[in-house]
Design goal:
By secondary structure, the protein is an alpha/beta fold. It has one domain: Alanine racemase (TIM Barrel). The protein contains nine helices and eight strands. Strand 4, helix 5 and strand 5 form a beta-alpha-beta unit. Bound molecules: pyridoxal-5'-phosphate. Pyridoxal-5'-phosphate binds next to strand 8 and helix 9. Pfam families: Ala_racemase_N. Keywords: Pyridoxal phosphate.
Length: about 220
């Protein structure tokens, strides 16, 4: 199937109140253009340099989502270019984001990435680390937490569903609380293989790459 057919199929499945982020990592601008032409404006990238290049050379009304692990020394390159950072995963990164956004006079919208599967190979905070991160977020001036994100460890449908459900519980719990800098708006979970399950468990933002663009070939650009 073509990219256009894929995006129409994904769009047809996704309810109106769920935001689709088209994950365009490794993809050429011509391919992004096909998705853009269908009306998609939210694109996800996981490499700072690639995002910055695409930002400079693509439509200005695109909202760029940073979805990869963000190294502290690269925060400065994305200030002013991203609409949402999905991957706040440590206090040190939080402090760097605050510092660089204060210096630029801008506000960073972020999601806290939670390592719900406690996968040692994945980034994200563990649930028992969440309170401390939240306390420090509350001391920030230029960081706003808009929700939560997760990437699941490989597993079957039952295991995925369980993790998504646990995420939704954490999300609902935070949703009820009153904070200065934290307000639950987005629950970013679900990729090509499991976005339907994620939506059925309460995701309102899904990140789909291969389901739109076809199989990824690395070193494409
Ligand atoms: C690559 C990536 C996706 C998309 O994965 P697909 O399987 O291609 O849909 C989603 N989220 C993150 C964080 C990614 O790095």
């Amino acid at each position: 199937m073509s990219i256009k057919e894929n995006i129409k199929k994904v769009n047809a499945y996704i309810p109106k109140d769920v935001k689709l982020v088209a994950v365009s990592k490794t993809r050429k601008l011509e391919e992004l253009e096909e998705v853009y032409s269908i009306g998609v404006r939210d694109f996800g990238e996981n490499k700072v340099q690639e995002l910055a290049e695409k930002y400079d050379n693509f439509h200005k009304d695109v909202k760029w989502h940073f979805i990869g692990h963000l190294q502290r020394n690269k925060v400065k390159y994305i200030v002013g270019k991203v609409s949402l950072i999905h991957s706040l995963d440590s206090i040190k990164l939080l402090e760097e984001i605050e510092k660089k956004y204060v210096a630029a006079g801008q506000v960073a919208d972020v999601l806290i990435q939670i390592n719900i599967g406690r996968d040692p190979n994945k980034s994200g905070v563990l649930l028992e680390e969440l309170d401390e991160l939240i306390n420090i977020c509350e001391k920030c001036n230029n960081v706003k937490v808009k929700g939560l994100m997760t990437i699941l460890p490989k597993g079957d449908e039952l295991s995925n569903r369980n993790y998504f459900r646990q995420m939704k519980e954490v999300y609902d719990d935070l949703y009820e609380k009153q904070y200065k800098n934290i307000r639950m708006k987005y629950l970013s979970m679900g990729m090509t293989g499991d976005y339907k399950i994620a939506i059925s468990e309460g995701a309102n933002m899904v990140r789909v790459g291969e389901g739109i663009f076809g199989k990824r070939i690395y070193n494409n650009i």
